[in-house]
Write a structure and sequence with these properties.
The protein is mainly α. It contains 6 helices and 2 strands. The structure holds a DNA duplex.
Length: about 110
DNA sequence: GCTTTGACGTATG
DNA sequence: TCATACGCCAAAG
């Protein structure tokens, strides 16, 4: 087992319903600042049976990480909309659904 | 142990 | 807003 991985998974699982977070934010929350790419890598290797709100993870720009039109892209878009998150051209307005505001600590449970 | 790979991020024009 | 360039670094082979 790997602590870093577990913390990343935990950080993703901690994203509140109806909100989103960037890869970088997840990494930072997991105590691995600057390891955004590691987060993406792990999400591509999630063990079978493990359930995670992976679709709540976006790029820092709010853009969905998958190639537009791809399976993952459509799937993620669908799941986000199902939670009431607005998706325009494969992007989400982080200013409205992101965790970068003052609500961070409250929602993430951080001081 | 060296090289390639990435569901990334920031800077720049 | 879009595109391109470069930095980053753990994991996989």
């Amino acid at each position: 087992m790997n602590d870093g991985h577990d913390r990343i998974f935990a950080a993703i699982a901690a994203i509140p319903r109806g909100r989103v977070a960037s890869y970088g934010a997840i990494a930072a929350r997991a105590g691995l600042p600057g390891r955004a790419r590691l987060v993406g890598k792990l999400l591509g290797e999630v063990p079978d049976g493990m359930v995670l709100p992976w679709y709540r993870v976006l790029r820092s720009s709010g853009q969905i990480a998958f190639m537009p039109g791809s399976r993952g892209f459509r799937e993620q878009t669908r799941l986000l909309k199902a939670e009431g998150i607005e998706v325009k051209k494969g992007r989400v307005a982080l200013s409205r659904f992101g965790l970068d505001g003052d609500l961070d600590h409250a929602l993430w449970g951080m001081p």
